[in-house]
Amino acid sequence: MSGAGGAEGRAGRVPSRGGLVARVRGARGVAVLAVIAGIGLALGGCGREGAEGRQTAEMEGDARMRLTSPEFEDGERIPERFTCDGEDVSPPLVIRGVPDSARTLALVFDDPDAPRGEFVHWLLWNVPPDVSTLPEAIPPSEVLEGFGSAAQGRNGFRSIGYRGPCPPPGPDHHYRFRLFALDTTLALAPGADREGLEDAMTGHVLEEALLTGRYAR
């Protein structure tokens, strides 16, 4: 207060103590309001930037092709009924975000942890790109009725269609459902093996989506 009073005196006018306090309080109030306003603007900006960032991330996430299942989350245990210990039928799969330029979809289901290397459990191709769901228990036929020109190949058990996880006793095996968006319809005969499918897909993959599951016995 003495410093403030001296400055006022040198200016040729000494206000009363009550007037000085009121002025100081008023100045402090303006300063505090200014600081609060600045913080509010900063937080508002951060909020807008955060919201815009989340919106952008969500939009980008929506743009990616995704493969999910209502029966298990990515990385979770595959329910027994989809394995050789149960009904051994294919699980339902949900497809989202297929590129507009895709002509067909292909699916490879395998076990990279098999004792002799990657083991194929399911091969499927020429699925129409507008298919959003593969229902449970796809029949083991070379050509799929109701799915355009979709065809199935020969798995590691030497049979057509889906065969579920059936690992030897031991730790978890990781199973991959790999979905491919292709820019062409494959000229591949039904019943082909993995090598034939991968050769046919070479140079035609637009995007890939991955769903993983675990299973042990």
How is the secondary structure organized here?
Blueprint: H1 2-10, H2 17-63, E1 66-68, E2 93-96, E3 104-111, E4 119-127, E5 133-134, E6 151-152, E7 173-182, H3 194-201, E8 205-215
Antiparallel strand pairs: 1-2, 2-5, 3-4, 3-7, 4-6, 7-8
Describe the structure.
This protein is an alpha+beta fold. It is built from three helices and eight strands; from the N terminus they run ααβββββββαβ. The strands form two sheets. The protein has a five-stranded antiparallel β-sheet, with helices on one face. It has a three-stranded antiparallel β-sheet with strand order 1-2-5, with no helix packed on it.
Helix content: 25-40%
Protein structure class: alpha+beta
Major sheet attributes: 5 strands, antiparallel
Any low-confidence stretches, pLDDT <50, length ≥5? 1-61
Overall shape: it is globular
Strand order of the largest sheet: 6-4-3-7-8
Tell me the fraction of residues in β-strands, as a range: 15-25%
Which sequence of SSEs, written as H and E, runs from N to C? HHEEEEEEEHE
Concise description?
29% of the residues lie in helices and 23% in strands. The protein is an alpha+beta fold and 217 residues long. A hairpin with a 7-residue loop joins β3 and β4 (119-127).
Question: Top keywords for this entry?
Answer:
five-stranded antiparallel β-sheet, disordered N terminus, single chain, 3 helices, 217 residues, three-stranded antiparallel β-sheet, alpha+beta
